[in-house]
Every structure is written in structure tokens, then in C-alpha cells.
Amino acid sequence: MGGMATNASVVLAIGTKKGLWVGTSTDRKTWDFTGPHFLMNEIPGIGIDTRGGRTRILVAARSEHWGTNVVHSDYFGANWTEPEQAAIAFPPDTGAALERIWQLQPDSTDRPGVVWAGCEPISVWKSTDGGEHFELNRGLWDHPHRSQWGAGFGGAAAHTVLPSPADLQTVHVAMSTGGVYRSTDGGESWEARNHGISAYFMPDPQPEFGQCVHKIARDAVQPERLYAQNHHGVYRSDDNADSWTSIADGLPADFGFVMLSHPRRSGTAWVIPIKADGERIPPDGKLAVHRTDDAGASWIRADAGLPQSEYNVVLRDAAATDTAEPVGVYFGTRGGSVYASADEGTTFTEVASHLPDVLCVRAAVVAG
Fold first, then answer.
1. Distance CA 222, CA 262 (A)
2. What is the dihedral angle through the alpha carbons of 185, 115, 24, 6, rounded to the nearest 10 degrees?
3. What is the per-residue pLDDT across 63-82, written as a single tens digit (0 to 9) for each?
4. What's the CA gap between 281 and 131, in Å, rounded?
5. For residue range 84-143, what is the model confidence (pLDDT) as tens digits?
6. Backbone torsion region of residue 26, taken as left when φ is above 0, otherwise alpha when ψ lies between -120 and 50, otherwise beta
7. C-alpha dist (Å) from residue 75 to 104, 139, 291, 354
8. How far does CA 349 lie from the centroid of its chain?
9. Beta strands in 78-178 (DSSP E)
10. CB 181 within 8 A of CB 195
């Protein structure tokens, strides 16, 4: 495990269409799993909060009968706590109802208790008590562009929330289909930040907003640098999303959902290409992860340990990294297989199989 402490382990949480599985490992080779937790609940969002010497697994559980709520466990899934009242509930004046929680994102270590949620319908929420209660961000909800935001194929959602570790006031959000929005005043106001990202499917292929950005990630060392996987297009911004440039050269396809960045090293990111919007399979039916170590100037293909033939794809939040040394890379497919790499995505091992459709994967290093 390289430089990972001997008394540490990794927790791996897998959200599927029909429940949650939680795994732990001390070597990232052998895993002990429990589950399914929340059987027959859809689990589209997971957050693992390791701040303050505690590991809290936050889960967005969606029942077709009971609706959607945020539940949490401080004991690796041995028991769960669910608030008596819904953790996320739209104020009556909005006339809206919560459909799905797409992301649960703990903030940085110097903002204890702060957890962000991105939801469907398109909305951003903030908790200051570790994810037990959330408040609607009215700045984005009341944005004048709202009536023109459309639904992506998976729904109209704020699927990515990226608070900046360098600046308390800066938060980025990505949504389908509005694109990237940025706040520099702590969420009071938001501006579209999509210059350079193409929306070839619209009458104006370079609109102010309306892009279908599938995922964004932030560089750990240079927080003003971001990476984006678009609905056809892979991009980098070096100016806090004021402008974007293509980094798709060298990839077998520019379509996909996944965008991961290295938790410590600048310039390293991972994507998992899909052939095209109309052919949603890995290119040539061969699943592979592509890594850049130079901020997108070049890409390295990695498929060691992956199946020779695979026609299932990886959804936007069904991939994650840990913070061990070397960094672990994890992802799950719509066919129910989950793969783990303990060498920064060079080689993979299947650690779970025959699960329901994998929607979300999260991993974290925790104290033993």
C-alpha cells in the first residue's frame, strides 16, 4: 500500500439501483463487504466525511414509496441514523418537491460540519451540522436562467458541487443542462461560466449557458484549475472556469461521464471514455481508463485487469479516488462490476460483481 499507515484502512461505498454495499480493506486487494443496506432503495449519492477524527458515511436513499432522504452512519454501516423530518425539503413557496439527491459533498477540513448537496430538480443545498439538516441555496434557485435550464437524459439536476478549498466564497456547480455556474460570494449569486465549452446540439454552439456538462473536478494543488467532461468534449480551465480549452486530443472518444482529479498532485486526472452519445458503450467494446499527468496534454490508456469485452458504461458518480499512497482509483459499471486500482489506475482488480446497476462509488482512507 505504499505510504499508507499500517493502522489505516480504506472504506469503499457502492450505491446501486437496489441498495448500498460497504467494503473495507487494509491492503486494497481483499475486501470485506456488508450489504445490501437499504435494499430496493436507489442510492445515487454518497459522501464519506472523515473530518474531525470521525468517519461518517452519508447516503442519499431514494424509495419509490417513501421518497428521498439523507441517512448517515458513523459506524461503517453497522447502524444508520435517519432524521425524523426530511433532511432536504423545499420551502412551500417554491412549489417544488425533491426528486433525487445526486451528490453529497463534504467541504474542506477547515469548515467542519459543512456538507453540500446537489439535487433534482436543479438545486444546491448546504448543511452546517454534518449532513443532518440542509438549507436551500436561494441564489441559485431564484436565478433568472432557471426557466431555460433543461433536463439532461438522466434528469434536471445539479449533479456536482465543488467548494474551493482555497477560498471560502468560491463554489462551482455543474448541472444538466445548464453547464457550469460559479459563485464568488458564498452562494449569494451565481454566474454561468461556460466560455469555450461546446453545445453542438444547440442553435448557437457556444451559448452562455445550456451546455450539458457531465462532470467537473478541481485540481488539488491549483484550485483555480478545473477539468470537465462534457456531452462530447473534455476540457480544462486554468482561470477558475472563466474560460475552457479542449484537452480531448489523444483520447479514443470525447464522450463520457467520469472526471476525477488526483487528491494531491497537480495535473493528474482520469476519464473513462464512451464511444458517443448515440452509442453508449466503451470504444470498440473495450473498457479502459485514461489518465493524464500533464493536465490533458497527453493521455495514457490503462486496461490491465479489465475485461477484454465490456458493453456496460460507467456513470458520472460511479468512480472515485482515495487518498492513500499510491492513490487508489475505483469505478463501477452499469453491469454491476466494481473495479479497484491501488496504483493510480494502472492495473485493476474486480472487487465486486453481479451487483445491481452501479450509480455511485466513494472511497476514503480511515483510521484503523
1. 11
2. 60
3. 999 999 999 999 999 999 99
4. 35
5. 899 999 999 999 999 999 999 999 999 999 999 999 999 999 999 999 999 999 999 999
6. alpha
7. 18, 35, 34, 26
8. 21
9. 100-106, 115-120, 123-127, 135-136, 157-163, 171-176
10. no
Name the helix (H) or strand (E) containing 20: strand 19-25
3 state SS of 180: strand
Q: Is-contact 288 258, C-beta < 8 A?
A: no
Q: How far apart are CA 212 and CA 260, in angstroms?
A: 18
The domain segmentation of the chain, as residue ranges, is: 8-367
Cα 21 to Cα 6, 9, 338, 354, 356, distances in angstroms = 24, 16, 11, 12, 11
pTM of this prediction exceeds 0.90: yes
Q: Which residues have C-beta within 8 Å of that of residue 279, sequence separation ≥ 6?
A: none
For the four alpha carbons of 260, 262, 267 and 269, in that order, the dihedral sign comes to: negative
Amino acid occupying residue 31: W
In this prediction, residue 2 carries a pLDDT of 44
3-state secondary structure 23-75: EEECCCCCCEEEEEECCCCEEEEEEEECHHHCCEEEEEEEECCCEEEEEEECC
* CATH class, 8-367 region: mainly beta
